[in-house]
Amino acid sequence: VTTECYVVRGRVGCCTLFSPPATFTWGPRRARFPALGRPMNRTYDIVLHGATGYAGRHAVDHLAKHAPEGIRWAVAGRNEDKLKSTLKERGAPDSTGIVVADSADPASLDAMCGSARTLVTTVGPFFQYGTSVVEACIRQGTDYVDITGETPWVRGLIDRLQEEAVAKGVKLVPLAGFDSVPSDLGAFMCARALQR
């Protein structure tokens, strides 16, 4: 059993992972789950990097329809006009922010990550574009989530950046969805078959 807890807008969210299923619950903020001394006064709770790509547009759809009331979110990418168009097409609220950032420009990545409490990215291939984003998140004290399925790249992140992320209280959550679902389901089915 593993439990991870996160503080979002003064509330603690806990995700408990059993040998499936996973549960996610919200509760009042407790002193034993501090914000790890990281800045809590960010412009956005969530910044979605890569919002104009295939997976990013689906993530915008989901946030536009299901983001909890009061969550401040923004989209990020290289082209402001494309970001505006995506928000309009997907019916995002007018309050949704726009952040222009490019994976090849470290200053723009620092600004993007510094504006968010959590950065969610769909920009791949991750071995090419992801490392600089993870490094910016660690520098800025921003939690990181991606949808990669590139396990060798993730292994490299763990080997190179895990200790620094832990020391700064930054959560790194790669493999959180799209590309990893087939392998997660396969592992679950194998474990279930072995239990029989």
Structure description:
With 196 residues, the chain is α/β, with parallel strands linked by helices. The protein has helices spanning 54-66, 80-89, 106-114, 126-140, 151-168, 181-195; strands spanning 2-8, 11-17, 22-28, 44-49, 73-77, 97-100, 116-121, 143-146, 172-173. The two termini are 21 Å apart. Residues 1-37 have low confidence and may be disordered.
- Strands of the widest sheet, in order across it, are 6-5-4-7-8-9
Mean pLDDT: 83
List SSEs in N-to-C order.
Answer: EEEEHEHEHEHEHEH
Radius of gyration, Cα only, in angstroms? Answer: 17 Å
Oligomer kind: single chain
Contiguous helical run count = 6
Q: Termini separation (Å)?
A: 21 Å
* Principal-axes shape call: globular
Poorly predicted tracts of residues: 1-37
Per DSSP E runs of 2 or more residues, the count of β-strands stands at: 9
Outline of this structure?
With 196 residues, the protein is of the alpha/beta class. It has helices at residues 54-66, 80-89, 106-114, 126-140, 151-168, 181-195, and strands spanning 2-8, 11-17, 22-28, 44-49, 73-77, 97-100, 116-121, 143-146, 172-173.
